[in-house]
Amino acid sequence: MRRWEVMVGNKAIAYAAKLARVQFISAYPITPQTSVVEYLAEMVASGELDAEFVNVEGELTAQTAALGASAAGARAFTATSGPGLLYMHHPMHMTSGGRFPVVMAVIHRSVKGMQPDHSDMMAQRDTGWIMLECENSQELLDTGIMAFKIAEDERVRLPTIFAGDGYILSYTAEPVEIPAQEDVDAFLPPYRSKYPLLPGLADEARRVQMEQWGIGQDPQLRWRRQQEAMEAAKMVIREVNEEFYKWFGRRYGNGLVEEYRCEDVEAFIVAMGTIASTARTAIDRLQARGKKIGLVKLKSFRPFPSEEFKRLGAMVKAIGVIDRNISLGSGGITFQEIRSSLYDLDERPRVLGFHAGLCGKEVRVGDIEMICEKTLRAAEGEEVTPLVDWV
Amino acid sequence: MSRPIPLHEIGEKEYIDPANQACQGCGGAIVSRLVSKALGDCFVRAEVACCGPAFMNIRAPSIYVEVFEGAGALMTGISRGLKRIGREDVVVLGIIGDGGTVDIGYQGLSAAAERNENILWVCYDNEAYMNTGGQKSGATTPYAATTTTPIGEYSRGKLERRKNVPLLMAMQGAPYVATASVAYPEDLLGKLVHAKGIKGFRYIHVSSPCPTGWGYDPKDTIKVARGMVQSGLWPLYEVSNGILKLNYKPKELKPVREVLKMQGRFRHLTDEEVDRIQGEVDAFWSRLVEKDGGNIF
Fold first, then answer.
1. Within chain A, where are the H helices?
2. Pairing, β A76-81 against β A52-55
3. φ, ψ at A3 (rounded to 5°)
4. How confident is the model at residue A367 (pLDDT cuts 50, 70, 90)?
5. Does A212 touch chain B (CB under 8 A)?
6. Phi then psi for A294, rounded to 5 degrees?
7. Pick from A61, A132, A357, B259: CA 20 to 30 A from residue A77's CA?
8. Cα separation of A170 and A14, whole Å?
9. Which residues of A touch B77 (CB under 8 A)?
């Protein structure tokens, strides 16, 4: 039976893993992720969850062990934050390169301190993982369950991160609906790998396995196949999002992006994670004052929904992109990718960039109103400077 | 404890292709052949960066992951995963080089031993990073010339002692730890078959000379390996639940000089340096003899 509980984000993540009936958990503590694996340890200790729980000696090992368990054919999960995610970087490439559908929760922590920004995940941008961003604890729980279904889909077979901002979500309690186990079981059947690392595997499975591991082939083929899987993932994410809605009555936009009050607007802003929650309030206030501006929440950072932005970009005159990250020497990462998505439009909207919330700097409703107002001025044709602001 | 098993008792089935990419006279390829024959049809092989991929063409399910540092974790995951899918009967084997064992992989190795993971770790020890051109490792014998400890006006080769990982594993309480050598296949096969029957963390450290890196004629691999054992440079022993047994115990050890002079990497040694190596070998050997049959703790 579904039920409600007031819980912190980390517990919502643990529930996602439990409801997905993970068979393997590798755990290493790091603030603000730590209590995710503590909750899971309790669930395993009490018999609520029947899984291998391995206390490893570092994140590199946490990732590599999850890879190994997935290769053997088990459903594997781990979680980390900030520097721990950086320490996983090397084996993360191996997990995706081997096409092992490991699911990992990332509780954002800046690489420059304890407080959150998205620099930890952005540093893994090109590791070939699917990356889904969440704005509240319910979304963490729901996305966690969906992540397994997306990762394990035969068209995808890619490891998947679902992420939320540290502290703001990890240690903040809010009501969360816990789906019924039998519904989750029906939505997400047990993982059956077609390519387990086992003696007696059929030749075709062995061939696919060898291809994934790069043995005896065009050396570039693995990159190409993985890119094709990422492209296929866009469709799969949308499907899984819809199927989740049928079972549980909740969906997150189309799974890739979520439009909030974007009907008949002249501009919209883009945000990822908890800033999107704050932005909803700002949009409500501005629309109450007659301002024609909406919000697009970027949920799937990888694969990047460039087609969605092309479609949305054609409808407006200006876009304000909030980046809780920076590629030093270049700029806001989603700012650039959204601009790139719009290039093929005949009439391109103006695109402004805003760096906000780095190292946990507070982003208030007023800050977002300011961002919106600047974006609206650009939509009206005003020459606004600078192109990129620090909020 | 193990009992030596002659090769003909193991059977004729081969798992490794004769046409593998290993160098002529490669000790590691011999290890791979013997290990796979001893384990038979029910094992999976985990491999990290080392010479191992050169003899990867082994007819058993294998996974190669370029996590040089991650062998312990990789095997942990595979073993736990197989348990979850109901295939605990499959032996999880790693044939891991000395770099991936005693240096970069040591943290994960030590942790896997602490957790007593159900895995079989076979270290084939060629005493340096031979796949990358022969750089010093924590397993290199002192005074050896390597490409990162070359001989020069200010250098006499590698100065540090070997890291004795078999004893470290035994001190961590691993259920079964053994040393072995490619020159003593009956001893190695016996240890592998014994290890196969044990559940938990098993560690076998095999001396696997490397003609390319050590500087000897490829036809002499077994001769060099045998000399290492007979001189006490590589004692053969096993530790079962803390009890040590010396498997090769001659009345008298051969002088180390004979085996050292067969190898180019020791060509520069002075008589004084050879004596110093001899002294260290003698001291360690007498301690092993003292402990033989007793508890190492």
1. 9-19, 34-45, 59-72, 82-87, 89-97, 119-122, 137-152, 181-187, 203-212, 221-248, 274-288, 306-313, 333-341, 365-379
2. unpaired
3. -150, 165
4. very high
5. no
6. -125, -175
7. A357
8. 11
9. 24, 26, 54, 64-72, 76
